[in-house]
Amino acid sequence: FHVERLDEARCVDGQHQVLVKWLGLDDEESSWEPAANLLDAIPVVFRKWVAANKEDPAVAALIKTLDFP
C-alpha cells in the first residue's frame, strides 16, 4: 500500500502513532501506524509532515521522543 496522507498524531502507552490515509482506500480504512516505522519507511514525507504540524502538541511530543534534529 502507498500513503496518501498523514492525518494526525497520538501517543498510546508511550508509543507515538500517526493516522495514515492509504491511497485507494476509504477514510474508514485509515490506520494508526508507529511513528518510528513511518520515519524509516517514508522519511521525506514523514519529515515534511512533522515540520508542517510541529505546533500540534502531539506532534511536538513525537519530535522530542524521536529526537528530531
Description:
39% of the residues lie in helices and 32% in strands. The model has no long low-confidence stretch (mean pLDDT 95). Strands 1-2-3 form a three-stranded antiparallel β-sheet. It has 69 residues and is of the alpha+beta class. It has one domain: OB fold (Dihydrolipoamide Acetyltransferase, E2P). It is globular and about 30 Å long. Helix 1 packs across helix 2. The protein has three helices and three strands, in the order βββααα. Pfam families: Chromo.
Provide the descriptors you would attach to this structure in a database record.
3-stranded antiparallel β-sheet; 3 helices; 69 residues; alpha+beta; globular; OB fold (Dihydrolipoamide Acetyltransferase, E2P)
- Biggest sheet statistics: 3 strands, antiparallel
Number of separate structural domains: 1
- Separation of termini? 29 Å
Count of helix runs: 3
Tally of DSSP β-strands? 3
How much is the radius of gyration in Å? 11 Å
Detail the poorly predicted runs. none
Q: What order do the helices and strands follow?
A: EEEHHH
- Strand percentage: 25-35%
Task: Tell me what the CATH architecture is.
Answer: Beta Barrel
Mean pLDDT: 95
Organism: Aphanomyces astaci
Domain Chromo: 1-38
Pfam families: Chromo
Protein name: Chromo domain-containing protein
